[in-house]
């Protein structure tokens, strides 16, 4: 009897204590994410990083380049390095030196890895083209200059889905929307009574959110300039930052009345009360948030701190869960965030930061890695991400059209043109539906029987393949260059007429994307160079003939006199 009672008591105690042991332990595939610092040979060393006190990242990165704002006497400049050019930097390294004042912010174009925008203390925004090989000399010729702010421009942000749409905020309390392709102002927003501390777009670019020195966060319609909602985000007087978590929720960082650093999550339609507010610590550095739409993780890096905290965002209360932190003994001046398509899938790298050291002239890459035993592609870590392809142009967006970003596969690098919105169907369902349609696509095609002999079919297939290979784009270009250019211009009589004939007879396809535009531009440059050579050859030939005629005339005169 006594033993039975003891067994029942043990069972009751175990059943009651077991849940408490695991209370608060949440299942997540990102629980064990860790930060991996780079080795010494992988650092960007000897970079004169700017000492400006402006609250900006001072760094931007994409799969081709990393741009870092530098300290230059008598003006503003930033250095652009190829992503693989690590090690000690030469003191005479070429820089972008077109601004007359200190550079305050730089951002890469999300749809063109060779275009970078910069804003400066000289009240201008400039766009620059960086060649694939990097800079060979100081660059002071910009593609386009945007003038409209009356005071220095502090922050710039590219539109996530529309091509050539750029937002800027200045110390004149204005937020301006630009068409960077034409240099025109699409809209001017003047609802802020004080300096704007940060600006961000939501996922589809239909809203922008700003934080201001008046301690308010605002959700604004960028096309009309109307304030949809506003409210006090943080009671502290220091700078606050904001980012969009999706199309509806916001995350802000700031300070409390007692100077405690805080993060808060909001619904952008109601900014009177936050969905959740969390105290981080009591440090004095401004917290910069960085959000990854694919993994739903937000990273917090404080200026002057040595650590990076990372959280996971969920759709249920409390909406944010602390995961871990990367701790380093070197304080940071700023951070550059690599886009997801630049991360290494073989290392299970889900994010990469470029840390600017405060005490040393060093830029250090830091990789955030999910530990996995298998070296195969991890589908759950890499859903379809934003592709470098715009969903619409500037005029379409300004006229009221809103489209989600074009997605691409991290495994194949191919853009998914037709995709379903993330809110209605999961990535796994979309992937399975696409595979299903591709697998059974042949059932929707009409089958026509062919009763020819097998040897005839084989000969016909071989002939068709040969014709297809001969009609490739390379063969077409080679034939056009060899026949239409060389044969025409070797015996040129009238350069202008022949050029017009060549332009009429050459029927290239109209460029449909940026890559085709680059190829068309390169092809036109080659044709122009060949034309110049032919014209120069013709001029030399004419000069030789004129000299020969003058010689013959002089000889005839001499013979007549004799």
From TrEMBL:
Domain of life: Eukaryota
Alphabetized InterPro entries for the sequence: Coronin (IPR015505), DUF1899 (IPR015048), WD40/YVTN_repeat-like_dom_sf (IPR015943), WD40_repeat_dom_sf (IPR036322), WD40_rpt (IPR001680)
Keyword Coiled coil on entry: yes
Residue ranges the record marks as coiled coil: 528-562
GO molecular function: actin filament binding
Domain DUF1899 span(s) in chain numbering: 23-87
Keywords: Actin-binding, Coiled coil, Repeat, WD repeat
Gene3D superfamilies in the cross-refs: YVTN repeat-like/Quinoprotein amine dehydrogenase
Positions of WD repeats: 96-128, 146-188
Entry's family note: Belongs to the WD repeat coronin family.
Protein name per UniProt: Coronin
Originating species: Sipha flava
Gene name as annotated: LOC112679508
């Amino acid at each position: 009897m006594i033993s039975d009672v003891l067994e029942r008591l043990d069972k009751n105690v175990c059943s009651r204590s077991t849940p408490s042991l695991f209370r608060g332990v949440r299942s997540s595939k990102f629980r064990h994410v860790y930060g991996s610092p780079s080795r010494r040979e992988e650092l960007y060393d000897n970079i004169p990083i700017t000492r400006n006190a402006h609250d900006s990242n001072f760094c931007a990165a994409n799969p081709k380049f990393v741009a870092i704002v530098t300290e230059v006497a008598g003006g503003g400049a930033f250095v652009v390095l190829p992503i693989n050019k690590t090690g000690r930097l030469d003191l005479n390294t070429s820089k972008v030196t077109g601004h007359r004042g200190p550079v305050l912010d730089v951002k890469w174009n999300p749809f063109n890895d060779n275009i970078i925008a910069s804003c400066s203390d000289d009240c201008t925004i400039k766009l620059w083209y960086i060649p694939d090989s990097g800079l060979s000399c100081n660059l002071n010729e910009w593609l386009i200059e945007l003038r409209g702010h009356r005071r220095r421009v502090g922050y710039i942000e590219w539109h996530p889905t529309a091509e050539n749409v750029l937002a800027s905020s200045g110390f004149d309390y204005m937020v301006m929307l630009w068409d960077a392709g034409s240099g025109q102002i699409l809209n001017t927003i003047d609802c802020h009574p004080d300096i704007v501390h940060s600006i961000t777009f939501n996922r589809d670019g239909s809203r922008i959110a700003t934080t201001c020195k008046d301690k308010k966060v605002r959700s604004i319609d960028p096309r009309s300039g109307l304030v949809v909602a506003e409210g006090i985000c943080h009671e502290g007087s220091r700078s606050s930052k904001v980012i969009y978590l999706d199309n509806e929720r916001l995350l802000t960082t700031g300070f409390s009345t007692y100077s405690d650093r805080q993060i808060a999550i909001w619904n952008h339609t109601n900014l009177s009360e936050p969905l959740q507010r969390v105290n981080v610590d009591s440090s004095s550095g401004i917290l910069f948030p960085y959000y990854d739409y694919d993994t739903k993780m937000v990273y917090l890096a404080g200026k002057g701190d040595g650590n990076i905290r990372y959280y996971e965002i969920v759709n249920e209360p409390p909406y944010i869960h602390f995961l871990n932190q990367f701790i380093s003994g070197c304080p940071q001046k700023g951070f550059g965030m690599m886009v997801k398509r630049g991360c290494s899938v073989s290392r299970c790298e889900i994010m990469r930061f470029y840390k600017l050291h405060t005490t040393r002239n060093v830029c250090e890459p830091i990789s955030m890695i999910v530990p996995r035993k298998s070296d195969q592609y991890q589908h759950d870590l890499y859903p379809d991400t934003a592709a470098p392809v715009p969903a619409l142009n500037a005029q379409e967006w300004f006229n009221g059209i809103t489209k989600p970003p074009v997605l691409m596969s991290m495994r194949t690098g191919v853009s998914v043109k037709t995709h379903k919105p993330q809110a209605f169907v999961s990535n796994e369902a979309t992937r399975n539906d696409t595979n299903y349609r591709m697998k059974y696509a042949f059932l929707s095609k009409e089958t026509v029987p062919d009763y020819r002999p097998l040897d005839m079919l084989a000969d016909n297939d071989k002939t068709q393949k040969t014709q297809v290979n001969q009609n490739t784009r390379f063969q077409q270009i080679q034939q056009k260059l060899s026949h239409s250019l060389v044969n025409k211009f070797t015996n040129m009589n009238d350069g202008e007429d022949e050029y017009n004939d060549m332009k009429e007879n050459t029927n290239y396809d109209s460029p449909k994307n940026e890559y085709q535009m680059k190829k068309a531009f390169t092809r036109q440059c080659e044709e122009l160079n060949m034309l110049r050579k032919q014209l120069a050859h013709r001029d030399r030939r004419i000069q030789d003939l004129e000299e020969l005629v003058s010689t013959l005339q002089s000889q005839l005169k001499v013979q007549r006199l004799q």
